[in-house]
Design a protein that fits this description.
The chain is α+β, with helices and mostly antiparallel strands and about 210 residues long. The chain is built from ten helices and four strands. It has a four-stranded antiparallel β-sheet with strand order 3-2-1-4.
């Protein structure tokens, strides 16, 4: 494929990519940032073309990964899995992940804190459940420990049980406590915490009567 560059044209359907023409014929496309150093009249060897295409592959994958990160923060393991599924080589994946980390867009400490805080706001979980979820995202144990250190387990369990307690309010105390404890246990809370929270909710309901 070696040849002289006769034209460099932005693609009509994607202005972020450039079509490279060699010896008057379309040869390949590149991300604009990779094609920025090329110029008409320049001769490209096969090795140079291969290098440009590899850089183009990495740059395109980096751009797609930015979109992937735009929905919510991700762990490094999630990004690695995402890129593996797109067929990138290990060294390419490593390069993209390191670049994202340098840019402050990929950080497992920040991700773990985000995950815990998001759960606390919207769907409180016990420490067992949170630890399992973070492990499944590829987060290390030390990072998990730091993220969970600030969690008020009793307060989380109380919030998690609030709506369910209202749904069970027609039951007698024994049935209410059993079902609410089971509900909290399924969400990763320890039995002792679940029991205390169930009793607390029961006391609050009886005071309102």
């Amino acid at each position: 494929m070696a040849g002289k560059i006769t034209a460099l044209e932005y693609q009509k359907k994607n202005r972020n990519r450039v079509s490279v023409y060699l010896d008057g014929r379309f040869a390949f496309g590149l991300p604009a940032i990779v094609a920025a150093g090329l110029k008409s009249g320049q001769f490209l060897t096969d090795a140079e073309i291969q290098s440009l295409q590899e850089k183009g592959t990495v740059e395109a994958a980096y751009s797609r990964t930015l979109d992937y990160l735009s929905y919510r923060p991700r762990s490094r393991a999630e990004v690695t899995t995402y890129l593996h599924k797109r067929g990138l080589a290990e060294d390419q994946i490593e390069a993209i992940a390191n670049r994202l980390e340098r840019a402050g867009l990929l950080d497992d400490e920040t991700f773990a804190q985000f995950w815990v805080e998001n759960r606390e706001r919207h769907r409180p979980r016990g420490l067992h459940a949170l630890r399992y979820e973070l492990r499944s995202k590829g987060i290390g144990e030390d990072t998990i420990d730091r993220a969970l250190a600030s969690v008020d387990v009793s307060a989380s369990a109380h919030r998690a049980a609030s709506r369910k307690a209202q749904q069970l309010s027609h039951l007698d105390r024994q049935a209410f406590t059993r079902k609410l404890v089971e509900y909290l246990a399924r969400r990763g809370f320890d039995y002792e915490v679940a029991r205390e929270v169930a009793e607390s909710h029961w006391a609050e309901m009886t005071l309102d009567e």
